[in-house]
């Protein structure tokens, strides 16, 4: 892959890769993992030519980096999610943040990618390197669990 | 709160995450990559992959290891062209797992007790799960947490699920085989009938294994271990998975009914209830003798009845947990198909057509 090819790849994978790793590991470690994966991609861009799903591959590169960092720092991934304490300056809503933290990583990522960022199921499945059905299951179950946790009700026909 | 409000809150949360972790600039990635690249070349690299298959007494020990070896030249070499990477490591280990699955299927043990204990490490708390399986069905499961553990998750382990777990670890090792992922090890010991006895798995080696588990197995019907294999192990025809012949001879024919519409989902034949959600689809093991006709995308049952995709189903048989499939189909290809389908569908239940 030449430099022009890498530029195009960067434009396609940067956002979903960063958002996936941030949804999984929280803003700090997730972004660090995404940076590591993108740097690795640039340094080894010649290897990416034969990879059918570079976003999925780079997600695994970033995930491996994050796991190493977690081991080194001896903290749990959940503790790195956005804080749930009440902070007026925080852009995160505590109740939803708490509910999202109760989901599995795959469910949380699926819900945020599909319902938060508006990615298609196919796009989200590719970056997580899972089948469409698996992604749909994670998204459905994650959303159902959120609805239960937050006591969400369906809209009535009469509004 | 209403549904649309939840959607909006999720979108707001996503936007807040974007603020907290803003996009990268291409130039920054290129610059920082150049800055750290030199240092990375000095790191010890993974070069050699090794597979050891050792028979010790009645146990088979398999390990996959990658030995650290300072070989800077390997960093820029595509892994596919690195001579050591051409060693067919995964197939050998996979074959060991396949062999164990075959031995387990041939043993035809359907009633047993499993005690699965995890070693304590950074990732594990030292929980012990006990599962009783009777006639292929989990009848009892308990979990015991050590006094220092916060909470142990519930789990119903079966031998098939342990095999699946090992298979998923092998998949991970294969997926992360590049040197950038670090050093991986997997060691599994199997009993003579293919039951995993010890399992140690460490992906991207750190201070602790991801998993280290000890398994105690007790057959509750010792004579069953010598049962002869079935006449026909079942198999796959197109997307149709059909069961053994005869189907568990001596067992009573089950009379549960399965209705709905026949659907083909990711190469899996399922029954979908009218208007039901995707979570209510049922995976089917068809009666021995069932075939698939691609030209009409139809299942043709043993008696000649044809059911096309989209048509109504009216089957008789029994609902069973995924872990009991060994009782109904012992062909490894068919078992693999059932496992992949159940994973894709997110279901742990099967319908066995009889």
Protein described:
The complex is a heterodimer of chains A (159) and B (354). Chain A is built from 7 helices and no strands. With 159 residues, chain A is mainly alpha-helical. By secondary structure, chain B is an alpha+beta fold. Chain B has helices at 3-20, 26-41, 89-107, 159-175, 332-345; strands at 45-56, 59-69, 112-118, 128-134, 137-144, 185-190, 196-202, 211-219, 235-237, 240-242, 256-265, 268-272, 282-285, 291-293, 298-300, 306-308, 312-321, 349-353. In chain B, the strands form 4 sheets. Chain B has an 8-stranded antiparallel sheet with strand order 1-2-6-7-8-3-4-5, with helices on one face. A 5-stranded mixed beta barrel of chain B has the order 11-12-13-18-17. A 3-stranded antiparallel sheet of chain B has the order 14-15-16, with no helix packed on it. In chain B, helix 3 (89-107) packs antiparallel against helix 4 (159-175). The longest helix of chain B is centred in the first third of the chain and has 19 residues, at 89-107. Chains A and B meet through helix 1, helix 2, helix 3, helix 4 and helix 5 of A and helix 1, helix 2 and helix 5 of B.
Please give a quick description of this structure.
The complex is a heterodimer of chains A (159) and B (354). Chain A is mainly α and 159 residues long.
Number of helices of chain B: 5
Could you tell me the strand content of chain B as a percent range? Answer: 25-35%
Number of helices of chain A: 7
Assembly annotation: heterodimer
Overall structural class of chain A, as computed from helix and strand content, comes to: mainly alpha
List keywords for this structure.
A: 159 residues, mainly alpha, 67% helix, 0% strand, globular, B: 354 residues, alpha+beta, 18 strands, 33% strand
């Amino acid at each position: 892959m030449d430099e022009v090819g890498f530029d195009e790849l960067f434009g396609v994978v940067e956002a979903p890769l960063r958002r996936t790793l941030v949804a999984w590991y929280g803003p700090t470690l997730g972004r660090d993992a995404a940076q590591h994966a993108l740097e690795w991609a640039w340094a080894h861009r010649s290897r990416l030519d034969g990879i059918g799903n570079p976003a999925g591959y780079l997600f695994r590169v970033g995930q491996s980096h994050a796991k190493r960092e977690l081991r080194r720092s001896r903290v749990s991934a959940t503790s790195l999610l956005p804080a749930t304490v009440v902070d007026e300056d925080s852009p995160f809503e505590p109740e939803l943040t708490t509910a999202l933290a109760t989901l599995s990583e795959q469910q949380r990522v699926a819900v945020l990618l599909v319902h938060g960022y508006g990615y298609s199921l196919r796009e989200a499945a590719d970056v997580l390197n899972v089948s469409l059905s698996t992604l749909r299951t994670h998204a459905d179950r994650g959303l159902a669990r959120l609805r239960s946790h937050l006591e969400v009700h369906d809209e009535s026909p009469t509004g | 709160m209403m549904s649309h409000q939840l959607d909006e809150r999720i979108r707001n949360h996503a936007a807040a995450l974007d603020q907290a972790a803003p996009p990268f600039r291409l130039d920054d990635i290129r610059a920082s990559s150049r800055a750290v690249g030199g240092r990375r070349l000095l790191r010890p690299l993974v070069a050699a992959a090794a597979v050891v298959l050792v028979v010790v007494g009645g146990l088979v020990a398999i390990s996959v290891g990658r030995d650290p070896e300072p070989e800077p030249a390997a960093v820029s070499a595509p892994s596919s062209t690195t001579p050591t990477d051409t060693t067919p490591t995964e197939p050998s280990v996979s074959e060991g797992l396949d062999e164990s699955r075959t031995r387990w299927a041939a043993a035809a043990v359907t009633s047993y007790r499993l005690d699965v204990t995890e070693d304590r490490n950074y990732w594990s708390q030292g929980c012990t799960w006990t599962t009783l399986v009777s006639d292929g069905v989990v009848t009892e499961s308990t979990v015991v947490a050590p006094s220092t553990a916060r909470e142990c998750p519930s789990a119903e382990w079966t031998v098939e699920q342990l095999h699946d777990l090992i298979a998923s670890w092998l998949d991970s090792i294969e997926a992360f085989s590049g040197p950038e992922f670090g050093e991986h090890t997997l060691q599994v010991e199997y009993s003579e009938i293919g039951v995993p006895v010890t399992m140690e798995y460490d992906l991207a080696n750190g201070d602790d294994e991801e998993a280290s588990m000890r398994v105690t197995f007790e057959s509750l019907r010792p004579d069953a271990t010598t049962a002869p294999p079935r006449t026909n192990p079942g198999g796959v025809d197109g997307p149709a998975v059909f069961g053994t012949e005869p189907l568990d001879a001596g067992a009573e024919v089950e009379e549960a009914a399965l209705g709905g519409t026949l659907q083909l989902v990711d190469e899996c034949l399922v029954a979908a209830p009218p208007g039901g959600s995707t979570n209510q689809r049922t995976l089917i093991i068809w009666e021995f003798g069932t075939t698939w006709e691609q030209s009409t995308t139809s299942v043709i049952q043993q008696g000649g009845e044809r059911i096309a995709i989209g048509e109504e189903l009216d089957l008789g048989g029994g609902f069973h947990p995924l872990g009991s499939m060994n009782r109904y189909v012992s062909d490894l290809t068919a078992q693999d198909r059932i496992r992949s389908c159940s994973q894709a569908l997110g279901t742990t239940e099967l319908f066995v057509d009889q």
